Amino acid sequence: MAKPDFRVYFNDDKQWVNIYVAHDPAHFKRKNECHAYYIAAEERKQRQGLFGYIYLSELNFSPMAHELVAHEVQHLIFDWVLTRKGGNINEKNEERIATMTGEISRRLWRKYERWEKENIKKDAKTKRRKTPRKTRKSL
Fold first, then answer.
1. Global confidence as pTM
2. With contact defined as beta carbons under 8 Å apart, do 17 and 52 qualify?
3. Tens place of pLDDT per residue across the chain (139 aa)
4. Residue 113 CB: number of other CB atoms within 10 A?
5. DSSP state of 5
6. How far apart are CA 82 and CA 66, in angstroms?
7. CA distances, 87 to each of 15, 44, 51, 96, 106 (Å)
8. Which residues pair with residue 57 across a beta bridge?
9. Which of 28, 46, 115, 131 could tie 22 with a disulfide, CB 3.0–4.6 Å?
């Protein structure tokens, strides 16, 4: 599997989800018939290590970016709750789950913003012309 674009840690930094961002949203949508999706890791431990993967088309092109991320984070949270002993949401764990959902969303957006800035810098470096442009004066 390809290296993730970034990771988001949760559950006191004991678990993480790998995030992949597609660079061609149109191709991603055609291939996957959606703008984003979550899948569980093939092998995972209940309380530590890699938990799953979130695949996203490039978010800065989508007017629904925040909703897409919230939707996929919710899939992750439901999966996390269902894998735990007791696997349900009740009054005792409701606030912890809500807090963790907010924390994962916040961390995902911060990592995405850093990732985006780094990629904009990389793109700017690769787009610089290596040979000077010919002008009328130089001809």
1. 0.77
2. yes
3. 689 999 999 989 999 999 998 888 888 888 888 888 999 999 887 778 999 999 988 766 666 788 888 899 999 999 988 887 767 788 888 898 899 999 999 999 999 989 888 887 766 666 555 556 666 665 5
4. 12
5. S
6. 24
7. 17, 16, 16, 14, 24
8. 22
9. 28
